[in-house]
């Protein structure tokens, strides 16, 4: 049976979790034995049972996979999970028993072994049930459903939806069924822009090739994944890979980093890094808040603005306030009086008169950006990624290809900031740097950008 990359990745995460739970189960068994006073004073916890861990920890997830324990995660009955788990553990007991006999292992702690197996059963079953509850909530909650568009001609879209596993379709919010035979591709551009769609699934069996190709280009330019139930389509940017929805083979044209251990590591790195940085930078938070209240009294300490996140989804981004309270209403007049140092839809002015003196100091050393660490903790931003732009500036993009910078999470720092922001006055050059980052992304690249950002901030080179 075909399995999607996303499902395969989920299974690998669950197997690693179960391997840890196996170790924890035997540790608990040893702890109970120690608590009952049955261990010698000099005997370290689990010291005599390490050989069991070498067998049970790596082999239990593999045996459970053989019994299809990781299939149908969304809707597997508890009785089925229990039976699969019992059979898997019986195999582990058999392997451990054969090893103990043929290797002539001495000093087997039967209590630890028995308790370990009981705890294994309980912990893994509990993890399985909690995983199913979490997955069901993810698919039933309107806020966490994946926003997609089904595109094709006539009734083939509905037919394709019927072919997919209902459990998978429940996790989707189909924002539109786009008929390529009767609607123009420019409408798809608008839909992708306004609906924060993450992918378009094409039912292209009876659709004219040229229309599918132009629709794929619309997805490609905006960094939205195109999943095609059809023959191969050439692309300039997106990388074609085969994937599956349930057991339905699909061709995917992806122009962004695909799901991988590196991306998971990036998510973990972002959250842990943001938490550590918030704690480490707390004196600067206090300094900024006191300074703003003293130098610009009677106005909020923090400034919030709606920015365009991944796929253009708006989110509220936070900064320390560095401008006068009515700065937003003065923008048009500032543009008229002082012009714009950045070519394109983005407004930048080195000596913006709306910035009060203490705010300029905060900006010089990027202290004003620190509240965005909360956005990273919330999952709206990353430590490294294209800078989030105000929604109104994104709406003013003249080139649709510029929207591909929205196909990844925005970041606190990026190539543009790490290299010194004042040296770049062309929005085209800025976007080119962001797209180069997306096309060549790796966790190591993120680390290098963060390391380059440190001297840029300390020397005040990151100031706008």
Low-confidence spans: pLDDT under 50, at least 5 residues? 41-45
Sketch the major β-sheet: 6 strands, mixed
What global shape is seen?
globular
| Strands side by side in the biggest sheet | 2-1-3-4-6-5
Structural class, please? Answer: alpha/beta
Strand content: 5-15%
**C-alpha end-to-end distance:** 54 Å
Count of domain modules: 3
* Cα radius of gyration in angstroms: 27 Å
Average pLDDT works out at 84
The topology string of helices and strands comes to HHHHEHHEHEHEEEHHEEHHHEHEHHH
Number of helices: 17
Work out the number of β strands. Answer: 10
Helix content: 40-55%
Outline the structure in words.
With 464 residues, the chain is of the alpha/beta class. It has 3 domains: 5-140, no CATH class; 146-254, AF0625-like (Rossmann fold, 3-Layer(aba) Sandwich); 261-458, no CATH class. The chain is 51% helix and 12% strand. The chain contains 17 helices and 10 strands. A 6-stranded mixed sheet has the order 2-1-3-4-6-5. Strands 7-8 form a two-stranded antiparallel ribbon. The protein has a two-stranded parallel sheet with strand order 9-10. Helix 14 links the parallel strand 9 and strand 10 (411-413). Helix 1 (5-35) packs antiparallel against helix 2, helix 2 (50-66) crosses helix 3 (78-102) and helix 3 runs antiparallel to helix 4. The chain is globular and about 85 Å long. The two termini are 54 Å apart. Residues 41-45 have low confidence and may be disordered.
């Amino acid at each position: 049976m075909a399995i999607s990359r996303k499902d395969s990745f989920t299974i690998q995460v669950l197997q690693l979790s179960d391997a840890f739970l196996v170790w924890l189960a035997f540790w608990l068994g040893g702890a109970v034995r120690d608590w009952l006073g049955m261990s010698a004073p000099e005997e370290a916890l689990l010291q005599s049972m390490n050989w069991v861990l070498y067998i049970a920890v790596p082999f239990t997830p593999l045996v459970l996979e053989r019994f299809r324990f990781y299939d149908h995660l969304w809707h597997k009955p508890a009785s089925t999970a229990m039976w699969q788990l019992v059979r898997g553990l019986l195999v582990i007991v058999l392997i451990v028993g054969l090893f103990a006999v043929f290797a002539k292992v001495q000093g087997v702690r039967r209590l630890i072994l028995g308790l370990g197996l009981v705890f294994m059963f309980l912990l893994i079953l509990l993890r399985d049930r909690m995983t199913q509850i979490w997955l069901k909530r993810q698919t039933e909650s309107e806020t966490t459903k994946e926003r997609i568009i089904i595109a094709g001609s006539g009734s083939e879209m509905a037919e394709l939806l019927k072919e997919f596993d209902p459990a998978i379709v429940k996790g989707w919010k189909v924002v539109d069924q786009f008929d390529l035979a009767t609607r123009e591709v420019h409408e798809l551009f608008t839909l992708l822009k306004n609906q924060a769609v993450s992918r378009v699934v094409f039912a292209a069996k009876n659709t004219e090739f040229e229309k599918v190709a132009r629709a794929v280009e619309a997805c490609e330019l905006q960094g939205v994944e195109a999943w095609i139930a059809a023959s191969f389509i050439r692309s300039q940017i997106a990388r074609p890979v085969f994937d599956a929805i349930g057991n339905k083979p699909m061709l995917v044209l992806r122009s962004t980093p695909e799901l991988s251990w590196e991306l998971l590591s990036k998510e973990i790195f972002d959250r842990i890094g943001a938490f550590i940085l918030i704690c480490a930078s707390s004196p600067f938070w206090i300094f900024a808040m006191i300074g703003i209240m003293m130098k610009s009294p009677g106005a909020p300490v923090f400034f919030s603005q709606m920015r365009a996140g991944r796929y253009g989804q708006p989110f509220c981004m936070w900064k320390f306030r560095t401008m006068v309270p009515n700065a937003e209403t003065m923008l048009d007049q500032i543009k008229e009086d002082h012009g714009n140092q950045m070519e394109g839809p983005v407004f930048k002015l080195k000596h913006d008169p709306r910035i009060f003196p203490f705010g300029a100091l905060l900006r010089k050393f990027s202290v004003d950006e620190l509240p965005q660490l909360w956005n990273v903790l919330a999952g709206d931003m990353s430590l490294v990624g294209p800078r989030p732009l105000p929604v109104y500036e994104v709406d003013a993009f003249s080139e649709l290809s510029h929207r591909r910078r929205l196909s990844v999470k925005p970041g606190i720092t990026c190539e543009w900031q790490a290299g010194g922001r004042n040296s770049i006055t062309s929005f085209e050059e800025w976007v080119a740097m962001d797209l180069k980052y997306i096309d060549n992304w790796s966790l190591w690249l993120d680390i290098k950008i963060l390391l380059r950002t440190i001297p840029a901030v300390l020397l005040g080179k990151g100031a706008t």
